[in-house]
Amino acid sequence: EDITIGALLSDTSNTFFVTMADAIEAKGAELGVKTIILDGANDSAKDVTNMEDLIAAGVDFVLYNPVDSDAAAAVVEKATAAGIPVISIDRSVNGAEVVSHIASDNVYGGKIATEMIIELMGGEGAIAEIQGMAGASAANERHQGFDEAIAAAGDKITVVSSQIGDWDTTKAMGIMENILMANPEVKGVFCANDNMAIGAVQACQQNGRSDVIIVGFDAEQIALDAIEEGTMVATVQQQPALMGELGVENALKYLAGEAVEPSIGAPVALVTKD
Amino acid sequence: MGKMILQLKGIDKSFPGVHALREVDLNVYEGEVMALLGENGAGKSTLMKVLTGVLARDGGEILYQGKPVSYRNVRQAQDDGIAIIHQELNLIPKMRIYENIFLGRERKKKSGALDIRTMIETTRELLERVRVQLDPRERIENLSIAQQQMVEIAKALLLDAKVIVMDEPTDALPDEEVDSLFGVIRQLKAQGKGLIYITHRLKEVFEICDRATILRDGSFIGELPVRELNMENLVSMMVGRELTEQFPYVKTARGREMLVVKGLSNAHVHDIDLTLYAGEVLGVAGLVGSGRTELAKTLYGLYPWEKGEVTLNGKPYRAEKPSEAIAQGLFYMTEDRKRNGLVMLMDVAGNITLSSLSRIRKGMSIDAKAEREIVSDYIEKINIRTPSMRQRARNLSGGNQQKVVLSKALMTEPNVLILDEPTRGIDVGAKKEIYHLINEMKERGVAILMISSEMPEILGMSDRILVLYDGRVRGELDREEATQEKIMSLILSDIQRKEAVSV
Amino acid sequence: MNSQSKAILFVLMLVCAILGLALAASVVNACHSFDNVLFLDGAARSARVAQAVEAGETGLKLTLFQNAFWLLGLAILLLAGALWCLARLNKVSERSRGITKLVLTSYRPLVILVLVTLVFSCLHVRFFTVGNFTNILRQISHYAILAAGVYFAILLGGIDISVGSVLAFSGAMGAFILSRMPENSWSALLAIGAALLIGIGAGLANGFFIARCGLQPMIVTLATMSIFRGLTLVLTNGAAISLSKKMAGYGLFTGLGQGAVLWGALPIPIILMALIYALAFYLLNRTAFGRHMYAIGGNEEASLLSGINVQKVKTLAYTISGLLAGVAGIVVTARVASATPTAGQSYEMDAIAAVVIGGTSLRGGEGKVLYTIIGALIIGMLNNILNLTNVSSYYQTVVKGIVILAAVLLDAKSVKKD
Amino acid sequence: MNSQSKAILFVLMLVCAILGLALAASVVNACHSFDNVLFLDGAARSARVAQAVEAGETGLKLTLFQNAFWLLGLAILLLAGALWCLARLNKVSERSRGITKLVLTSYRPLVILVLVTLVFSCLHVRFFTVGNFTNILRQISHYAILAAGVYFAILLGGIDISVGSVLAFSGAMGAFILSRMPENSWSALLAIGAALLIGIGAGLANGFFIARCGLQPMIVTLATMSIFRGLTLVLTNGAAISLSKKMAGYGLFTGLGQGAVLWGALPIPIILMALIYALAFYLLNRTAFGRHMYAIGGNEEASLLSGINVQKVKTLAYTISGLLAGVAGIVVTARVASATPTAGQSYEMDAIAAVVIGGTSLRGGEGKVLYTIIGALIIGMLNNILNLTNVSSYYQTVVKGIVILAAVLLDAKSVKKD
Ligand SMILES: Nc1ncnc2c1ncn2[C@@H]1O[C@H](COP(=O)(O)OP(=O)(O)OP(=O)(O)O)[C@@H](O)[C@H]1O
Ligand SMILES: Nc1ncnc2c1ncn2[C@@H]1O[C@H](COP(=O)(O)OP(=O)(O)OP(=O)(O)O)[C@@H](O)[C@H]1O
Ligand SMILES: [Mg+2]
Ligand SMILES: [Mg+2]
User: Which of B494, C13, C250, D367 shows its CA 20 to 30 Å from the CA of C275?
Assistant: First the structure.
C-alpha cells in the first residue's frame, strides 16, 4: 500500500534544511514511500497553509519543523484531528501532542560555541556576536545560548558589539569590518550561521587580522573548508541528515503500529580542525 | 449697464521670478459678458485662479455682491456661485459624463448612498440645454474634444452660478459648436448672469462680449465697452504696438511634387489622394473629428497603413515609426504642445535638438559647442523669448513654447512639414511671428501641410485647401476660389450625400 | 450571411461546447475516482486498470479511465470546434462580437479564474473539492484583506508597500496586550482595538506624508515599512509572542482566525474577508468618496479643480489601507495563535500581484475591487496546487513569477486590442 | 541698504562661520584624542580629565576637552550668528539669495552629505578617519553599483526591483562555474562573462516585457525578481557555493572584490564603482542616448513624436540595470568569496532609497546620476555609524526608515519653495 509522508520545513533556502530535506527524500525512496516536502519560507502563516494543504492532499504522516513553535500547536491539532500523526523535528511544538520530537538544541549549540571562543580568548577580552535574521527562532535560540555563556563567563569578558546580519554573508562582512573599525581589540566573534561566519572571516582576512577567533553554526561545507584552512576555528554541527532519516524511520515504525520514543536525540557537537 | 456683481480691485500676484499680476482690476456686470484679453502670459488665467481660490493673492481685494470675499479653494467659490471652466480640460477620461458633471457635488440619498438616477436625469437636462445629444452614461474618453468642452460647460451650468468664467472655451471648438456655445451664453445673459470670457479669437469679442478688460504683461491696461473698440485698437492695446495685416500671405512659385499620396487607407482614413508641392502651404480643413490629425499621424508612422502608395521627393515613402518618417524628411508638429510636443522638464536647447541629435554628434558624444551655436542661432532667428537656452520649457509662455517646437521641426531640415493647429491658444503677436516663419519655410522650398480649425487662418495662409470629412477627402479648393461658405458646403454636401445613402 | 445560418452556427457552438466540457469533466472525474490524475504516465494507468479489472470492477467509469487519453483528445477537438464556431460568428455578427469582447475585457479575470480552475482540477485528485476550496479561501483571507487595502492606494495611482510591516506590528501589539493581561476578560477587545488603532495610525502617517507633504507613495511606504518592522522587533524583543489558552482573551481573539460558523463549514476569516470586500465595494461604487477615489486616480488636478478635497480623500485611502493591514494582522495572529516579528514579510508583493492580476492598472483610476479577490484567489490556488503536486519550493518561486507575468500579459494584450 | 553695509555683513558672516567651525572642529578633535566622544556624560569626562591630569598631561587639547561643553555652545552660537548674517544678507541682496537658493536646491544632496558627516563625526572617535571612509566606500560599492542601474530605470519613470535577485543569480553562476572548473585557468574569465551575460539577459527580459509588451515596470520586475530568486535556489540547491584558493580562477575572480591598488590604499570595488559612475555620467550627459533617456522620462509621447526609438532606449536602460546588477553580483561574490542563494535580498529597496535620497524623482525625467552615489554614501554612513556605536539592530531599522523619510522630506520642502 502506498504511503505518503509530508515534511514541512521552515526554510529551504537554508542549507541546514536542504540537507534535511534531501535526507528525508533519500530515505523515503530507499524505504519505498512517497514524500512531499514543503517550504515554510520562515513565515508562520505560510506554515499553517502548508499543513492545511498536506491535510488536503491526504498524506499519511507529517514530519514537522515549524517556523514558530507556538504557532504550530493549532495546526498540529488539526492534523491529528484529520487522523494524521505528526513528529516534530528540530523545533518542538508547544501546546499540542505530537508522536515524538526529534531534538537538536540551538541554545546548547550557541552556548558551547561561545564557551569555546571564551576559552580560546583566555577567559578575558572583547567578544562580538553577529546574529541571524531578527525575529527568526533559530536566531533567537542561538543568541540565547550566547548570552548564557557570556553570563557564565563573568565580567572579564565584554561584549563590544552584537549586531544582526540577517543570515547574509555580505551584511555580516560589512558588520565585521565596522566592528574591527570601532573595536580593534575584539578577539572573538560568534556568528549565528556559517554564511555569516564566512563573511566575518573575509572581513578579518582583508583587514589583515588572522588573530580573531571565529566560530560559526551549521557545519556547512564552506565552514568545514574554512576550518581546514585555519581561518575559522569551529562550527556547531547539528545533524540535519540524521534527523531527517530518524524522522522517516520513526514515522514508518509508528504507522506499522510499533512504539516510538517520545523524544529522540540528535546530538549537537562542535566541529574543529581535529 | 447691468449692476456690478463682482469687482476685483488692485490684484497682485507673484510667482518666484515672475510678477504675474500688478494692480489688476476687473469688473463683472449682471447680464453682460466681460471679455478678458491679453497676450499669452499676460496673466488672464492667473487672475481667474486668484478669483476662484486656486491661488492665493498677494494683494488687492475681491468684492462679490458688494461684500469682500476671499476663497481658499474652488469649492468655496463654487458654493458662493462662482463657476469656472478652466483653460485645460478638467474631465476624468475614464469616468462617465454624469459622474464628471457631479464630481465633487454628488447627489446622495438619505442613506448616504449615491442617488444615481437623479444625477443621470439632471445631466440629461443639462446636456439638452447645451444642445448636445449624448447618453449621460457615456464615458468621457469616447467623446470628441468639442463634446468634452460642452460637457464642461454643462458642468458649470449645474452650479447655477451667478458668475461664470470661461477660459478659452472655444480653443478647441469648430465654428458650429461655437455657435451653440454662443446660444448658451446669450441664454445665460438673459438670465442676468455675469460672465467673464477669455479668448484669443478676437472676432468672438465683437460677436458676444459687451465689454473688454485688457491686460498686458500682468498690468491692467483698461476696461472699455466693446462698441468703442475695433480690431486695430484692440490689438494695439494688447500688444502695445500696431499690428498690420493679420495673415501675411506670400506667393511663391510652386516647386516640384514633394509628397504624393495615392489611395492611403487604414482604420482612421480612407482612400486619401493628395499631392503636395515644394514651397506651398496646403491647408486641411474639416470638422473636429474629421480625421485630419489621423491623416497626419498615419503619414508620420503612428498608425499602421492598410493600403496606399506614397512617394516623397520622388522616392517611395513608408514609415512605421516617427524616426523613420524623420529620416525620410517628413516631420509632424502635434496639435497639443503641452501634452506631446515638448518635454517640459527639459531645457530649451534640449528640446530644440531632440530630433536631430545625430547631426551634432562628435564621436559618441554630443558636440556641446555645436549644440550651443545651433540653438542660439534658432533663438535669435525665430525670436524665442527666453532668459537662456538652459531655461526649462515649462517656464516659457505658450507662444514661445510653440516656437521651440517649430525650431525642433526646422532643425530636422524636413522636406515636408505637417503643422497641426500651429497657432492654437497663441496670442495675436506670436501668431503673426509664426505665420512669418511659415512663409520663410515656404520660400526655402519646404512643402507644408497645415491643419487648422480656424477658418480665417486656413483661408489666409494656404495656397490650396483640402477638405476632409469622415476620414475622406471631400474636395480641394484653390486659394482664389476658396471661401468659408464653399468649404462648409463641401462638408455639408457630404452630410447630405451620406443621409441620402442611408435612406 | 443570413440570420438562419447564424442561428445554426450558434447552436453548433453550444452543442460542441457542452459536449466537450461534459466529456472532459467525466473523464477527469473517472480518473480521479481511480485516485489517478491525468498526467500520470500510460504505464501507471494501465497497471491501475489491470488492478481494477482484477478486482472485478466494471462500468462506465472504468471504460472512461481506460480510454482517458483519446477521449480527452476528442473533448479538446470538440472545444476547438466550439471556438471555431465562435470565431465565425464573430466575423458575421456585431452582437456576438460585442459579447465576446465584453467577456474578454470586462470579465477577463473571471475567465482566467475559470480556466485556471479547470486546469488545476486536472492536476490533482483533491483539488476540486469543497474541503480544498474552503481551505484555499481561508488561506487567502488575510492576503485578500491586505490586497483590498492596497487596492485603495493603487486606485489613486499610488502604492502601499508598508502593509506587511503594519500587519506584523498590529498583530504583535494584539498578542502583546493579550499576554500582558492574562486575567482580564476584556483584553481581547482591547487587543483588537489596539491592533486596529495601530493600523489606522500607520495609515494616517502614510497619508500625512503622501497627501499633505506631497511625497511619493513608494518612498514613504518604503520608509514606514522599515520603521514599523523595527517597532515590531522592539515590541516583541525579536521573539514570537505566543497566545496560550490560559489567557482570558484567548478564545475570543483566536476565534477571529480559527473559528467557524455553520457547523464548522464557514470559517470566520472567510466571512471577514467577504464583509470587507462588500464594504469596500459599497464605498467605492455607491458613495461620493468612491467617486472621488476614481476621479483622483484618473486626474488629480482636475479633481482638485472640481472642488474635491484631494488631501482628505487621499489620507482616508491610505488610512483604510493601514486599517485593513491591521485587520489582516489580527486574522494572521489569531490564525496561528502567535505573533512573530517577521510576520508579513514580503506580503506586500503578493498583495500588489493580486491587485494587478485582478486587472487593476498601477496607473490608477481604473479597476474593480471585487476582481482583486479573484487575483488573490488565483495566487492562492497556484500555491495550493504547487503544494498538492509537491513541486519543489525553488521551482514554486519560478512558477509564481511566470504566472504573474502571464496574467498581466494577457491583460495587456486584450487591452491593446480595444 | 548700501553696498558698504552688505560688505560688512558678508565679512561678519565669514568670520563667524570660520571661527565657529574651527572651534567646533578643535573641540571635537580634542575630545577624540582623549578617546572620548562628545555625547559622553559629564561624569565620564571629568573622570577622564582627572586621569589625564594625574598622568601629568597639559596643553591646549586638555583645556579644550575640559571645557568641551561650553566651548561647543559658543561654537554653535557663532554658527547661528553666521546663519543670521546670511538671512539678513538674503533679505537685501538678490545675488546672495540666488547663491543660497542654488546651494540649497541644486547642491542639496551635497549639503545633506556634509551635515551628516559633521554630525556623525561627533558621534564616534573613529568615524572621521581615512580608514573608515575607505571601509564605508568599499561597503557601499555594490549597493552603489546596483543603485546606478536602478537610476536608469527610475529616470525613465519606471523601477527595477529585480536587481537583488539578478545580483544573486549572476553571483551564483560565477561561483558555480569557478567551482565546476577548478583546474581551468580561464574559468575566472568564463565566470565573469557568464555573470555579466546573466545580468544582460535578465535586463533584456525586463526590457522586453516593459518596452515591447507595454507592461508596468513594477509588476514585471516583481515577477522576474521571483523567477531569478527561484533560479538561484535551483542552481545552488539552496546551499552557499564557496570559492576556495585551490580553484584555478580564484585569484583573478576574488581580486575584483578583495583586491586593491596603490599599496592597498585603493580597493578595486571602489575603482569599479567610480568607473561605472563615470561611464554612467558620460552616457547620460554627453550622448544622444542620455538625452533620449531624459526626454522619455519627461514625456514619453513627445519623445516618440520627436522620432526617438522609445522601445529601444527603454530596453537598453533596463539592460544596463541588469548588467550592473550582474557586476554587483560579481563584486559581492568576489568580496565574500562565496555565493549564497539568499544574497541581495531586499537590496533593491536600499538601491531605490539611495536614488531617491540623491534627489531623483520617482516620476522620472529629472535627476543627477552622481548624486545617487551620495545617496548610497549617506545610507552607508548611517549603517556604519549605527554599527560603530552598537545601536541595537531593532532600532537601526527604525532609524533607517526615519532618515529616508527625513531626506525626502527635505527634498520636497525645498522643491516646493522653488
Ligand atoms: N504656477 C506658476 N509658477 C510660476 N509661474 C507661473 C505659474 N503659473 C503662471 N505663471 C506665469 O504667470 C504668467 C501669467 O500666466 P497665465 O497662465 O495667467 O497667462 P495667460 O494670460 O492665461 O496666458 P495664455 O493666454 O497663454 O493662457 C506667465 O508668465 C506664466 O509663466
Ligand atoms: N468614440 C471614440 N472612441 C475612441 N476614440 C475616439 C472616439 N471619438 C473620437 N475619438 C478620438 O479622439 C481624438 C480626438 O478627436 P478629434 O475630434 O480631435 O479628431 P481629429 O480628427 O483629430 O480632429 P481634427 O480634425 O480636429 O484634427 C481622435 O484621435 C479620435 O480618434
Ligand atoms: Mg491662460
Ligand atoms: Mg485634431
Answer: C250
Q: Scan for cell 520627436, then name that residue.
A: D306
Sort residue B259 into left (φ over 0), alpha (ψ -120 to 50) or beta: beta
In terms of Cβ atoms closer than 10 Å to its own Cβ (0-12, 13-18, 19+), residue D306 is: buried
How far from chain centre, in Å, is Cα D9? Answer: 37
Can you spell out the DSSP letters for C209-253?
IIIIS---HHHHHHHHHHHHHHHHHHHHTTSPEEP-TTSTTHHHH
Determine whether the interchain pair C394/D216 forms a contact, defined as Cβ–Cβ distance below 8 Å.
no
Nearest CA in chain A to D254: A202
SS3 D284: helix
The amino acid sitting at B24 is: V
Q: What confidence tens digit (pLDDT) does each residue in A37-72 have?
A: 898 888 888 888 888 888 888 899 999 998 888 778
Q: Which of C159, C222, C403 to mutate to test the interface with D (most CBs of D within 10 A)?
A: C222
At B14, is the secondary structure helix, strand, or coil?
A: strand
Examine the pLDDT at C229 and tell me if it is beyond 70: yes
Chain B residues in contact with D282 (beta carbon < 8 A) = 365
- Overall average pLDDT of the D334-340 stretch: 88
Of the residues B71, B103, B151, the best mutation for testing chain C's interface (the one with the most C CB atoms within 10 Å of its CB) is B103
Element (H, E) at D90: helix D68-92
At B486, the amino acid letter reads K
Can you list the residues of chain B whose pLDDT is less than 70? 1, 16-17, 241-245, 493-503
Ligand 4 centroid vs D164 CA: distance in angstroms? 46
- Give the ligand 1 atom nearest the CA of B16: 4
Give the chain D residue whose CA is nearest to the CA of A218. Answer: D239
Q: Does D337 contact A at CB distance below 8 Å?
A: yes
At the top level of CATH, the class of C130-417 is: mainly alpha
Residues of B in contact with D298 (CB under 8 A): 343-346
Q: Which three cell numbers stand for residue C213?
A: 507633504
Contact C77, C379 (CB under 8 A): no
Subunits with 3+ C-beta pairs closer than 8 A to C? A, B, D
Tens digit of pLDDT for each residue in C65-122? 888 888 888 988 999 999 888 888 887 777 777 787 777 777 888 888 988 898 888 8
Q: Which amino acid is at D315?
A: T
Q: Which of C282, C298, C307 is facing B94, going by the closest CB pair? A: C298
What backbone phi and psi angles, to 5 degrees, belong to D126?
-95, 0
Domain locations in chain C?
3-104, 130-417
- Burial status of residue D246 (CB atoms within 10 A of its CB: 0-12, 13-18, 19 or more): exposed
